[in-house]
Each structure stands twice: as C-alpha cells, then as structure tokens.
Specification:
The complex is a heterodimer. Chain A has no helices and 7 strands. Chain A is an all-beta fold. In chain A, strand 3 and strand 4 form a beta hairpin. By secondary structure, chain B is of the alpha+beta class. In chain B, a hairpin with a 3-residue loop joins strand 5 (99-102) and strand 6 (106-110). The chains are: A mainly beta, B alpha+beta. The A-B interface holds A 4-5, 45-55, 74 and B 20-24, 83, 134-137.
C-alpha cells in the first residue's frame, strides 16, 4: 500500500517578485542539487499540505509536464517528498 | 435591521494546530500538555480521540495517562498558536471588518448587511468552515444568531466542524431546554445560586423578572436574564479597535512546593518582576493587586487589595501580596503549589502622579529609574545578567524561569 504520509522537503526556489508583491516560482532546486524548471503556475491560494504536514501559500505548478504542488510558508518553500520520487 | 452574528470557535485549537504539522498523528489520541518535569503538567488541549478515552482539558498529565496510556503528548508552542490565530482572523476579516476576538481561538463576526438574513449567514458559515479546513487544515464550529450570546452558544452545540443556526424562530426550542450553566456568564457559583432557586435551564432563567434576578444575584442577574431571553445587544467591536487590556498577570508553579512564607515571598518576587516588567513594557501602571494561591491539594484562593496610587514596581506589589496572605489567613494552607499575581485597574504611565509630602513619591521615582535600568540590562544581556539578591538566598528562585510562562487570557466579556 502506498504510504499516506510523506516527507516534507524544504527546497530552494528561484522566483520572480512582481511589483504588486505577488511571487512566481520559476525554478526548483532539490537539496541534492537537481533542478526543475517550473513551466507554469496554474493556481495560487492558501492551502494545507495534507501528506507532509504544514500549510502556507500553495502553488499548483506544471513541472516537466506534470502537476505538482509547492508551498511557501513564512518565507520557506517546501514540497511533499512522495510527489517527487522517480 | 436584524443582526447576523457568527461565533467561530476553533475546535481543540492547540491540538489541531500541532496536527497540521504532524498529519501522521491524525486519528490518534493526542494532546498538548504543559511539561511534566516542571510540574506545570496539565492537558491544555486534546483531540476528540483523546477525549473519547476520558482525557479532559485541564486534567493533570498523570491522570490523563491513566485514562489513556497510549496518549501522545507534545509541549505547547505558543508562537505557532498565535500565528494560526492571526491567520484565522485574517480570513474572517475578508468577510467583515467587525471581528472581535475572544481568546486565541474564538471570534465573533458581525456580518449584518442589507439582504443578509439568517439563511445567508448559515451559507457564509459553511463557506468559512470549508475555507478554514482547506486553507489552514483546522476545523471550526460556527454559531449563527441575532446576538453574540446565542451565537456563542450555537458554536458550542455541535462540533467539530459544524454550523448551528439559532434564530428568533427556534431559540425557544433550541436554547431554552439547555442547562443554565451553558449560558455565557454563568459560572459555577452563579449556577449553584440559581439551582437553589430551582432555575436549572436557560428557559427557567429567561422567564424570571429582572427585579427578582437583581434581588437574588445583583446587577449581574439582570444581564443574565436578558441574555437568556435573547435580548443581548452588545456590539461586535471593529477589528481596528484594539481590545483594551484589563489586567496583566502571571502565575508560577514552582518545581518544589513552597513550604514556608519565605519561599512564597521569593516566588512572589519572581512573579511580580515579570508582571511589573510587562506593565512597564506596555507603559501602564496598575492600582489593584490581585493574588492567587493554589495549595498542594489544588485548592485555589484569591484576594485583592486596591492601593492609593498606581504602580508598576514589584517592590510595591510583593509587600501588598504578603499582607494579603497574612490578612486572609492563607498561611495555614501552606505548602503552596503555585502563586499568581495580577495588576488590575490599569492606566497609562503618562498620567501625572500625585506627589505627597512624606517623600514617598521621590522614593517611587528612584525605584522607577532603578527598574528602568534593570529592564535595559535584561533586554541587552538576558534575564540572568542581573538578579535579585534574593536569588542567592533561596534556591527555589533559580528553579523558576522569569517571564517564561506568559498567559494568554481572553478579555472578559462583561465590561
């Protein structure tokens, strides 16, 4: 059975801050240095990370053709580890 | 226009804030507890799974463990709760600017607007619950009514994560059969008093005449009767109006019981220092010293004394508190487990001070300059950088961390 819970992985993010204060993540850098381009941000709203725990601004993104979630909570970016298993 | 008031109450607030970060523990008996080592240990919040096993809020830790040996506990993280409290308020403020917090986990919202009736209130309440669940991972219970008292009662009727409408049409059926103790403002003492007169439900209270109630329990009786009859008209204050601070207080449970008055004196200084420095930080002074003593059997005693001047000096509070202990014969309740001190009747410290000819005011001025200097040293070098001589004389002092357990109290509803 697939584990319902996953690790919370803090990542580096290259982002663009717009004049109105909104932030658009452009690139995600894994702790081991691997990088992903963020093709597009599909949705931004406050939300909970149900599998890894935590909450914050939730960015629904398209990364390498797949939908992935990315959270920003009090200035720190994180993802749910399960999502990024190869 | 009929008012539409919501009361939003976050369910098992501390516990659920922790679970947002620890989703794997959801569904298990879980509680936030004061630390056992230093004996502060009581259950501050428990999830419904823990409550189902008999764990109750304010239960002593070891007792909770007897009810539920598999209970998972974590120490409180107040920064986190304050953060979530602010997030909740920010969400509520998207609906109205009339949001009045009541403690960290409760808020009243006045959403009265032309075209908004109770039905629309219920719809908004459901929407709010959904957003809190999705955006914050918490659950709230919402009461919807035409006044604050019934809205609060409503949020208590069904939980977790439920909305309850108490309207002009149904309050007699929904509210009146409830035990009178459920009504805001009816504490244990009033409840007991009312029971003697065979007033057991809120409905019993509602049909009393105000005159009779005043004769029985004083001015408060009139207010409570009005609450029960659905005639509370108190407004929901606006978000921009900062709640006025009514009192500043703190209490300490010492790691070892206080066996002598000397011990108590020492602990009182630690409490008073924290209260006084907070008052000074807020640029306030208080006039009424209120003392709380809890003995080893967990019995609680309190006493107050009003001074003839305003102060923010521990050196003035402690002798008054010691006097109160002696005057009220609290010595015979030694050993003490905890001591609390609060200052009430506050005013800003920019008010002019009445001088006298006995030299007291110049002594006070010296004291104030001294404590200002001490505050600055504490700020720059930490609280252990400069301490009272008392700390050397009595080891009990060093076991206490000054200013560590700030209490977050809701403002009193009765103003």
């Amino acid at each position: 059975m697939r584990e319902r819970y996953s690790d919370k992985i803090y990542v580096s993010v290259v982002a663009l801050t717009r004049p109105d204060g909104s932030v658009i993540p452009l690139q995600l850098i894994w702790p081991d240095g691997r990088q992903w381009e963020i093709d597009r941000v599909l949705d931004v709203r406050p939300g909970v990370a149900r599998k890894a725990g935590g909450e914050g601004m939730r960015y629904l993104c398209r990364i390498s053709g797949q939908q992935r979630e990315l959270w920003c909570s009090q200035g720190q970016w994180f993802v749910e580890g399960e999502d990024f298993k190869d | 226009m009929e008012r539409v008031v919501l009361h939003c109450d976050a369910n098992s607030f501390y516990a659920n804030c922790e679970l947002v970060e620890r989703p794997a523990l959801r569904g298990l008996p879980f509680a936030v507890c004061g630390s056992t080592e230093e004996r502060h240990g009581i259950v501050l919040a428990a999830t419904k799974e823990a409550k189902a096993k008999g764990v109750k809020t304010a239960m002593v830790n070891w007792e909770a463990r007897q009810w539920c040996p598999e209970l998972i506990t974590v120490p409180p993280n107040y920064q986190r709760y304050i953060y979530f409290s602010k997030r909740l308020r920010a969400l509520y403020e998207q609906y109205t600017d009339r949001v009045e917090p009541f403690g960290l986990d409760e808020c009243w919202l006045d959403i009265t607007k032309p075209g908004v009736g109770p039905r629309e209130g219920l719809r908004l309440a459901d929407q709010l619950r959904g957003r809190v669940r999705e955006e914050l991972g918490l659950t709230i219970s919402v009461g919807i009514s035409f006044n604050k008292v019934f809205a609060k009662l409503g949020s208590d009727l069904r939980k977790p994560d439920a909305s309850t409408l108490i309207s002009r049409g149904n309050f007699r059926q929904k509210v009146w059969p409830l035990p009178v103790g459920k009504l805001l403002g009816v504490g244990e003492r009033v409840r007991h008093n009312l029971a003697k007169r065979n007033i057991r439900t809120i409905g019993d209270l509602a049909i009393q005449s105000p005159q009779q109630m005043e004769a029985w329990i004083g001015k408060m009786g009139i207010t409570l009767q009005r609450f029960a009859a659905g005639e509370d008209t108190s407004p929901v204050s606006r978000a921009t109006e900062e709640a006025e601070v009514k009192s500043v207080g703190n209490s300490i449970t010492s790691p070892q019981d206080m066996h002598t008055l000397k011990d108590a004196h020492c602990v009182l200084y630690a409490v008073a220092d924290s209260v006084a420095s907070r008052l000074r930080e807020m640029e306030m002074r208080g006039k009424c010293v209120s003392l709380m003593v809890r003995d080893a059997e967990m019995r609680c005693f309190s006493a107050q004394k009003t001074l003839d001047h305003y102060t923010a000096q521990a050196e003035e509070m402690v002798p008054v508190a010691m006097e109160l202990i002696k005057a009220k014969g609290l010595e015979r309740h030694l050993p003490y487990r905890s001591l609390g001190l609060s200052m009430e009747m506050l005013q800003t410290d920019r008010q002019p001070v009445q001088t006298d000819m006995l030299g007291r005011s110049s002594r006070l001025e010296k004291l104030e300059r001294l404590s200002q200097a001490v505050d600055e040293i504490h700020l720059r070098f930490g609280v252990r950088a400069i301490e009272r001589g008392l700390a050397l004389a009595n080891p009990i002092y060093n076991t206490i961390i000054p200013r560590a357990d700030h209490l977050v109290h809701p403002d009193g509803f009765m103003k």
